[in-house]
Amino acid sequence: GRKSGATIPITAEKAQPDREQPSKLDECRRCELWQYATQAVPGEGPRGSKGGAPIMVVGEQPGDQEDLAGKPFVGPAGKLLDRVFAQAEVDRKSIYLTNAVKHFKWEPKGKRRIHKTPAQREVEACHYWLEKELDAVRPKVIVAMGSTALKSVLGRSTVTLKDTLGKSVRHEGRWVVTIYHPSYVLRVPDEAARQEAFSIMVKGLKLAHELLE
Ligand code: URA
């Protein structure tokens, strides 16, 4: 028989801490999305004990090109975002750029991979990583691009994109500024409306900068 006291009963959860609290992003199994993605895409920008970026910009999830490159905002949405940064006179290297969800969620359409909006449970699972980034970067202002980013940043809040677009709200000791997502701006069919949406993004970034002063 078994020697008494030889084994300490442990729960399945305690036996697999990495499942719930992974230390490496690429080993994350907190939701199912890792199975279909090439790799996880971490945020990019200044972080660490010497002081991180004062502004953190949060998108939705990597797209097709980001999934392949392993870097955020390198595809069409990133190109538009670069134009927004230029017009707002914000240096992309000075900000921390990341996504609410770190794996690309997609469905096949012919030979292409079409973006699928992440589910609430996937956004919640991946919030674990956003929290780690917030701890490491300690930004003064968060810019949430689109409603997925806003939901992740504000957690249980019922505040919507419409309520906060272009405005700043206080949340857990920081400012949160909401702007459109660049992919949304790319899809606005009417030229004048697209220009307007673009300028709302620029104004939001300028506001984020003003909040640092
Ligand atoms: N859209 C996003 O939300 N993030 C990216 O990194 C690319 C496209």
From TrEMBL:
Per the database record, which ranges form the Uracil-DNA glycosylase-like domain?
46-198
Q: In which domain of life is the source organism classified?
A: Bacteria
UniProt family annotation: Belongs to the uracil-DNA glycosylase (UDG) superfamily. Type 4 (UDGa) family.
Record-given protein name:
Type-4 uracil-DNA glycosylase
- The organism encoding this protein is Telluria aromaticivorans
Q: What is the lineage of its organism?
A: Bacteria, Pseudomonadati, Pseudomonadota, Betaproteobacteria, Burkholderiales
Q: Which residues of the full protein are shown?
A: 286 to 498 of 506
